[in-house]
Amino acid sequence: MSIDVLVIGGGNAALCAALTAREAGASVLMLEAAPREWRGGNSQHTRNLRCMHDTPQDVLVDAYSEEEFWQDLLKVTGGKTNEELARLVIRTTATCRDWMRKHGVRFQPALAGTLHVARTNAFFMGGGKALVNAYYRSAEKLGVQVRYETPVKELVFDGNRFVAAITESGERIEARSAVLAAGGFESNREWLREAWGQNERGEWPAENFLIRGTRFNQGVLLKFMMNQGADMIGDPSQGHCVAIDARAPIYDGGICTRIDCVPLGVVVNRDGERFYDEGEDFWPKRYAIWGLLVAGQPGQIAYSLIDQKVIGRYMPPVFPGITANTLPELAQKIGLPVDTFMQTLNAYNAACHQGTFDHTIQDDCRTEGLTPSKSHWARPIDKPPFYAYALRPGITFTYLSLKTDRSAAVRFEDRPSPNLFVAGEMMAGNVLGKGYTAGVGMSIGTTFGRIAGSGAAAAALNKS
Hints:
The protein is of the alpha/beta class and about 475 residues long. Helix content is about 25%, strand content about 20%.
């Protein structure tokens, strides 16, 4: 069998690459490590795409300019981003949805309680699973071949030119070009342990991490490419890491395990002490820093605390909270030192500045004379019943990546491969040096999946 384009991976970026390459006239084979029922990688757990738009567009209200999108990204990454590639992603999101619809993706207006993102993010009808299934249906109709349970362990090169892939079973699959879209190493516990190391308390933080997404992203090809001398970018300890319910499963907990009440209450560690400003910014711009914050606390655990006043003002979690009618009782139930816990809560309650509470804007309810401060939505926690949610770091994907440029070509000693391209998590660190803002992972995967697919088809068909 003669193959033009080999796509290694089975999530959003891989599918975008496969569909684009097939539209360009190339024959395409996709290799997905997961069984069919678990296909789609982390994309099956997504729900929206961050989109620039200068005017209202169907499900998107108002406007979200290129510059505002860029400033949001710049803020969460702390400047650790390639502006050229970031702006390429941003501009592409203004026009990609028509292509997505052509392949069966449907969008819906943001539902009540979806965290202030009706203006910035387009929600998939049926969520990420529906998006993945739509793309697979379209791929099948177009003649893209898909093989499941076919993980790839290494590649064969002639210089920096791709020649073939070797599967875990030892099968050799040759193609004229290839796209790497096999995800990061977030489900590889050993590599996470190595990346995070041992902290000053003698703990190995990664031992307490939960994996929000797929168990199949082991980073095998990422490690192989590193060893082959491919140009790399990013910090292996950085990634999309969210504070999630400590009762979540080890793998595939997805979005429903996230705890979204953090900005409306306080968060304490196992010593009963606060450690960060819970009201720093709107939750979609800050939720992805909390996993790393919790990872830095003793035992990699923390507790989000709220009272009755905020019930109904956030997306409820899948598991009920621990409840109590008094704060000392709540401390006892979650196993925290009561005296320190009460000192923390009393100091916080006393520091709350009386303002006009509004969880839909950055209101003037803040603390005064308290370290760490709470910048917005600060109200005393004083109305029972009280609720506590235990938090653990939930890894979504890692940012150590293959370095690339706007062509999506894999690079060796700063020279682009003529026929090997990369998309999705395997290159996301070019745009995301640290931090995250809701929906941008799908923006990166969609943009570079299509660029990689187009480049691979051109290389295979000698049109480059």
